[in-house]
Amino acid sequence: MKRIFAKKPINDLSQDNNDKSLKRSIGPINLIIMGLGCIIGAGIFIVTGVASAHYSGPALVLSFILSAIACIFTALCYAEFASMIPISGSVYTYTYVALGEIWAWMIGWVLMYEYLISASAVAVGWSSYIVGLFGSAGIILPQIITSPPGTGIINLPALFIIVLLTGILILGVKESTRFNAIIVLINISIILLFVFVGMNYINPANYHPFMPYGFSGVLQGAAMVFFAYIGFDAVSTAAEETKNPQKTMPIGIIGSLIISSILYIVVAAVLNGMVPYNLLNTSAPVTFALKSVGVNWAASLVSFGALFGLTSVLLTSLFGQTRIFYSMSRDGLLPEIFSKLHENFRSPVLCILIVGIVAALIAAFFPLNTIIELVNIGTLSAFIFLALSIIILRKQHPEIPRKFKCPLVPAIPILSIIFCSFLILQLSHTTLERFAISLMIGLAVYFVYGMKNSKLRKYDGDNILNLKLMSNYIHRLKINFINTINDHLSYFRGPKKL
């Protein structure tokens, strides 16, 4: 039991391994753009409509504000960890240091589950938008190649976009962030276009009733739209590839969260002012709102822009997934194949390929209707462990230099735990049951493979062996020393009398 709760020595994290170290090439601006790329996308183009129609109504603005508050507390914890431990792996690495191996494995498993399923779901959403865009141009793609088994055979557009982005990730993080920067700039331009056009069509009557489902609906809506904010976790997975991470990581995490929160709140206010909330139960609410007020040219542009937004989210989700795999493999909890780097690209090519293949197969052959809640519960669980780790390390290792400190510890981490726990309780019982089953599967994998192959355990075993050898060596030295002293004393004593 002591071994499965063993903690990774924090000093080991600062030791670079030339064969296992990623290339540092991301600056603060690119890091903020990476966060915006994962945060601004599915939240605006998909989740806003469902959350408004079924949970929050026009009070969707309040739901976004509540989720943003929960994220701000968590972002401050992330910023401290990222400045203290600038290593790839996000909450997985932080938990390994603060709470121990078994908890780190569970969080790593949750994050793998979150990123992989999220990437597949976004790919399916991307497919829906591209099919709609082709349809508006008079090109009808047959359902048999755009839907999973049941209504079709395979979702080829979803498969295509994952394969394309997998290839881009293989080229290396610098090329990936450049591609992502272009997408994010287009995405933000499209969102600002919607805001400026939509403001002219706001009908104040659409804001009444403001809370049609009561305050409980606002809370459930907050749990739903939390999906929109999980991108800043992906920022922390890039810590090992960031220049001057002690300063850059806090800027990237907090900056991307503040910018995206402002955009979400403004979009929610404009969206609910344009269209009655009960009509927004659609997978493309922004486009629907523009078409409802007769601005078809803007609706077409937004549909085109949504493709860029979802592409950015998908790229960042795949990036985060591969870095979690990479970190766990480097620690021996997953096979070593996941942490092998390409000589030229300095990216974990085999890891990226495996993740891309699995995500593509899921997106191509499975309908993912409940994916938003499944992703949310994994993220919220990881955030709770993150806040716990901040409190523990402040107590156990106050001497570690921290370029950025989370203010008001333990108050801020405790507030983060309370907010995240409360949002988890707003999710459905079915989601909780599925999450519990996934955790049991994760534990089984750990005890079958991870526990036996952990490099931390091997390290401890080698230390025990070395200590035994050293003890025997010291014992022999002591005996030799005593014998030498006795020989010298016997010389002065003279020969023994018979």
Account of the protein in words:
With 498 residues, this protein is mainly α. The protein has one domain (10-453): Amino acid/polyamine transporter I. It contains 17 helices and no strands. The protein starts with 27 loop residues before the first helix and ends in a 5-residue tail after the last helix.
Task: Give a quick set of tags describing it.
mainly alpha, Amino acid/polyamine transporter I, 17 helices, 498 residues
- What CATH calls the topology is Amino acid/polyamine transporter I
State the CATH superfamily name.
Amino acid/polyamine transporter I
Topology pattern, helix = H, strand = E:
HHHHHHHHHHHHHHHHH
Give the overall pLDDT as a whole number: 80
What's the alpha carbon Rg, rounded to whole Å?
27 Å
Q: Portion of residues in helices?
A: over 70%
User: Percent of residues in beta strands?
Assistant: under 5%
- End-to-end Cα distance: 62 Å
Which geometry do the CA atoms define? Answer: globular
Structural class: mainly alpha
Count of the separate structural domains: 1
User: Got a strand count?
Assistant: 0
Quick description:
It is built from 17 helices and no strands.
